[in-house]
Each structure stands twice: as structure tokens, then as C-alpha cells.
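Run: sequence + BIS(adenosine)-5'-pentaphosphate -> complex structure.
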Amino acid sequence: MEATRDRAAWLKGGSAQCNIPAEEREAPWRLVLLGAPGVGKGTQAELISERLGCCHLSTGDVFRAAKTLDECERSPALNQALDCMRKGELVSDETVLSMVKERTKCLRCGGGFLLDGFPRTVAQAEALDELLESEGLALDAVLSYEMPIEQIVERLSGRRTCSECKAVYHVVGRPSKVAGVCDHCGGELIQREDDRPESVKVRMETYERSTMPLIDYFKARGLLLPVSALGTVEEIYSRTAGALAARRAE
Ligand code: AP5
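>> structure
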């Protein structure tokens, strides 16, 4: 079975190292993925990471990985973060920023990075600007995936995620070869707690209120690349790759 890229340094934090570090690139991509919950950011991130070599850094994956810790190993801030996630609310900026800062070495990765789910508020975007500046790094682009809300909700209701390697499937649009079993690692496929309808409603409202203002924030900095999220996974990837190639040619 094909192994997905190792992201131990990002998922575990602290002194954890990736067993298979990303390959050094001459011109690594440093990207942010923006878009409503369920628009397909994580799915595109897997392909971009595989094909362009930049490491997929998802803040949601870090919090979900922390769920597997014993109760006594979780800090009060982490328990509060997991409670927010279950309800579909945002985790506090303070908790998210301290988690990202603890993983600053991932931003220096020689393969580049692909931030998915961060930043999610203007305060987080400003903190990222400061962090990158202090490391002498800059973003190449912000990919903003766009799609009508009704179709997004359909994608979320059929999503299944591998409990081990976090690979993402859809029961209709992107099924695994064997129902309920991950193609990559053989792990069990599960439905995320926050994909229940009541949490999805809160997540969409929160996105519109707190995250949509980032579209103007990044547009004003000349970084925004809008990409339609309609169509098949490969069609969307091809639009993404085209937008990035045009950016490099500028
Ligand atoms: P997070 O994990 O970041 O989730 P999200 O933004 O809600 O995004 P999703 O992972 O739900 O969707 P996606 O766009 O990646 O879609 P996917 O590719 O899976 O955050 C979760 C929670 O953590 C937040 O609510 C918050 O509480 C907390 N959090 C995280 N970061 C935070 C931060 N910075 N600040 C504060 N709180 C934070 O696709 C969805 C489905 O569609 C899948 O089944 C997929 O197979 C399918 N699909 C994808 N593309 C296609 C296609 N082209 N055709 C058909 N099906 C498709």
C-alpha cells in the first residue's frame, strides 16, 4: 500500500521529526488554501503536496490528532479547542497561534508548505505575516476555492476520513476501493463529528463572519488566486496548477 507523506513534525509538534523529510526544492511553494468548510481544500492539498512537494499543514488535522491523547495528557486549552470543534465553532486565536508558533520549523521546510485551515481570522493572518517576516519567508500565493454553499453541504455529508493517515474520501464522488477501508494504509474510514448537520450550519456561519474577510485581506496584498471548486478533483487540480504556473510566470 502507498504511504502518504510523513507529517510527524507538524502533527505531533515539540521535538518530533518527520521520518521522511520533504525533498529540498530550488523554488519551494509557500501557499495558503482558503475556502468554506467542505469546499475540497484538504482533497486538493493532498494532490498539490504529492505533485509540487510542499508539505500539507492542516490546523484541523493537528487538533483531530490530539483527540487520540489520553484525557490526562490534554491541556485545558486543548480540551476547550476540541469542544469548539465538535460544535463547529472556531478555536480561540490564542490557542491556534501558540500551536502554530510551536511548529515554526515546518514553515522553514525545504519542500515548502501548504497551510490548510490557517489563517482563519484577520488576527491569525496578521500573526502569520509577522511570523513569516521574522523567518525571512514570504507567501507565493493564496488559493481561494469557490463554490455555492448547497453543493458544499452535499460534499460534507458524504465525506469519510481515514482514522489513521487522515486521507479523505467521499461515499459517491471519491469512494475507497473497499468500502470503509483506506486505500493508502488500510485504516478504518470514519465520519467526522463536526460533519453532523447542526455543526455544519455553525461552521458555515462562522466561515462567512470570520474567514471571508481574508479574501479582501489577501487580495489587497496581491496574493489571491481565485479557483472554481466545481467539477472533478482532477479538473480542480488542473485549474490550480494553471493558476500557480501563471503566478510563477509573472
Ligand atoms: P478544518 O479541519 O480546517 O476543516 P474545514 O475548514 O471545516 O474544512 P474541511 O476539512 O471540513 O473541508 P475541506 O475543504 O478540506 O474539504 P475536503 O477536501 O475534506 O477545521 C475543523 C475545525 O477545527 C474548525 O471548525 C475549527 O473548530 C478548528 N480549527 C481548525 N483550524 C482553525 C483555525 N485556524 N482557527 C480556529 N479554529 C480552527 O472535501 C469534503 C468532501 O468532498 C470529501 O468527502 C471529499 O472527498 C469530497 N470532494 C472534494 N472534492 C470533490 C470534488 N471535486 N467532487 C466531489 N467530491 C469532492
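>> summary
The mean pLDDT is 91. Strands lie at 29-34, 55-58, 112-116, 141-146, 159-162, 168-170, 189-190, 224-228.
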